[in-house]
Design brief:
Elements: E1 18-23, E2 30-39, E3 43-48, E4 58-64, E5 77-88, E6 95-104, H1 108-117
Antiparallel strand pairs: 1-2, 1-4, 2-3, 3-6, 4-5, 5-6
């Protein structure tokens, strides 16, 4: 199979950060845990421990790029997104979510941009 031209607006980076996905952006119904497979300013691939997702579902995502020091609270990046594709997997992480980011909370866009630019040598084609 020959790959076509890249259509993504933002480059992807293969980063493995802890992630918490929360169903419902304003009225949280459930929280599920997992980690990113790759990430860009426009979205993410996330492996998740929950297997009952609906495409187009609105979710809130907490990304944890740093391991907290003992006794300190973990810094996180908070983004809103929409599930655009769901793929079942095997093992503990039962589902791969492809998520398009729809909004950034607080300084999340700037923080994510700075962290990803530091990983620029890892860009995925």
């Amino acid at each position: 199979m020959i790959a076509g031209p890249e259509r993504r607006e933002h480059p992807r980076f293969p980063v493995r950060w802890k992630a918490a996905t929360l169903l419902g952006q304003w009225h949280i119904r459930e929280i599920h845990h997992g980690h990113t497979l790759d990430l860009s300013l426009g979205g993410a691939n996330i492996l998740c421990d929950h297997d009952d997702w609906d495409e187009a579902e609105e979710i809130l995502i907490f990304l944890f790029p740093f391991t907290p020091q003992p006794g300190k609270r973990a810094r996180h990046i908070e983004v809103c997104g929409k599930v655009v594709h769901v793929t079942p997997t095997s093992g503990v992480s039962r589902t791969r979510l492809r998520v398009a980011f729809t909004d950034y909370r607080n300084d999340a866009c700037l923080m994510l941009s700075e962290l990803l630019s530091a990983e620029s040598q890892l860009m995925v084609n």
